[in-house]
Design a protein that fits this description.
By secondary structure, the chain is α+β, with helices and mostly antiparallel strands. It has a single domain, classed as Nuclear Transport Factor 2, Chain: A (Roll). The protein is 17% helix and 35% strand. It is built from three helices and four strands. It has a four-stranded antiparallel β-sheet, covered by helices on one side. Strand 1 and strand 2 form a beta hairpin. It binds zinc ion (ZN). Zinc ion binds next to helix 2. It comes from Variovorax dokdonensis. This is UPF0225 protein QTH91_00270.
Length: 136
């Protein structure tokens, strides 16, 4: 099956209670960033997780707020992302939001780790950006 038709790595469940396909979920933003930015902070957070899974540094950097954006991004060789759980999405005001999530990853050494964060997002000129995070 084409990768675009497989369940999106972010695990989002659609209206029919079935996992959304990549092309109907984060793929809309990852592959059409210029014309279709993620419409809310949770969608952006999910699409950034999917970008980690697909090692899309271009998307991760483009959706990082310029004030915090690293110059380059390296992916851990052999690491495998195992799943995402969005625990909370809180709109603080029109242009600020917080998303709390947990992501599981298995490193090249085979050890599983669980990463939990509260990420901050800001909207500027109609686009949401990831700013930074506190450990959850
Ligand atoms: Zn997705």
């Amino acid at each position: 099956m084409a990768a675009d038709l497989q369940a999106c790595p972010c695990g989002r469940i659609g209206a029919q209670k079935k996992p959304l396909a990549y092309a109907a979920c984060c793929g809309r933003y990852l592959d059409h960033f210029d014309t279709t930015p993620a419409p809310d902070a949770e969608s952006l957070m999910r699409s950034r997780y999917t970008a980690f899974v697909r090692e899309r540094a271009d998307y991760l950097l483009a959706t990082w707020h310029p004030s915090q954006r690293p110059a380059t991004l390296d992916f851990e060789a052999g690491a495998k992302w195992l799943g995402l759980e969005v625990k909370a999405h809180r709109a603080i005001d029109e242009t600020h939001a917080m998303v709390e999530f947990a992501a599981r990853c298995r490193g090249a050494d085979g050890r599983a780790t669980r990463m939990q964060e509260r990420s901050r997002f800001v909207r500027e000129q109609g686009r949401w950006y990831y700013v930074d995070a506190d450990p959850g």
